[in-house]
Amino acid sequence: MLRCLSGVGQLRFFITIVCIFFLFSSAYAQDTEAAGEQRPLSLDSDLVVVEALWQADGSKETEEVPSTAQVLPPPLEPPPLKSVSLMLDWYLSPQHAALIVAEARGLFTAQGLDVELLTPADPSVAIKLLAAGEVDLALTRQPLLHLFAHQGAPITRIATLIETPLTAVIVKGAEQSDNAAHLAGLHYGYSTQEGADILIHELVPRSVRQTDDYRTPQSVHFNTVSAMDSDTIDAIADGFYHTLPQALSANGIATHTLHYGELGVPRHDGLVMLANNSSLAAQSETWSRLIIAVEEASEWIVNNPEAAWALVVATHPVLDNTVNAAAWPDIQRRMSLSPAALDTRRYGAFETYLQRKGLTDTALPVSRLAVDLFTP
Q1: pTM: predicted TM-score of the whole model, two decimal places
Q2: CB atoms < 10 A from the CB of 141, how many?
Q3: pLDDT of residue 1
Q4: N or C: which end of the chain has fewer CB within 10 A?
Q5: Going from the N-terminus, what domains does the chain have, and what CATH number goes with each?
């Protein structure tokens, strides 16, 4: 009987375990179904924050953070301009138009340069100041470059502004039938060193210069009108043919012009820009930028001659007169459109000419006289 009771007890225990397992399974299934009915989280779901986790401090004001910057950053300052001093060959005139336009149209500034145009108290000091390092650049004429280079001046041509001479022999009266003999007997004046050292030798043969009645040429210090008006001289060896004949005509003095090519003087540049040899390598990048500005100005002048002249006289009213206005068309035709370009043949030929005439002992190489900064 005890064995039967023991069997009944085991059966009850087994049934109890099965019931408990069934109850827990049903509860788990209900919880799973309830969880399945909840919507998944999305951007549209409501977010509930437990109040204990969000306690605003009423004593402090909440600052609203802007979504965009309210103040623009300050603009970047442009780099400072590099100052360059350029000594003119003489008073400002239409032949300097490329420099005037480059300055007036902001072409120098666009190249990062602040160019100061200086007028010499005496035309002979420009190269001397450049050689001494007192100015960065200087203007002169090609013949004067050759003469000073033979004297040891550390100067080099880096650009050409005017491609032909702007001076010539200006003689009183009409041209004679035997003009060579007539020219040899005149009393000459001159204003420049090339006038005295080169042109007088072409105008007056050595045989005439050695006679007792030969009158030594006279320096007129650029006061040619007064010298010719007072009959102090008969002709000027280096007069500006665009302006001097007109000025003399106004005083009732008739003249005729003899260009240097008619005397056998080689063709040469009328206005060149010089740099000091000692600074040429270090400043080549700066000089190149300056030449680019001059080139842009020259092209604009040729394309807009009337507007260019209006800009020149508006910038410098002292140039606004009938003589300059009449000379302007011819001057702008003689301007170089490629200032940096170097005609080595022209410079070599002038050296040969000086040596052949006995004015120099040797011929300097062109590389000593001139460079093209854009040619490696």
Answers
A1: 0.79
A2: 22
A3: 46
A4: C
A5: 82-162+269-369 (3.40.190.10), 167-263 (3.40.190.10)
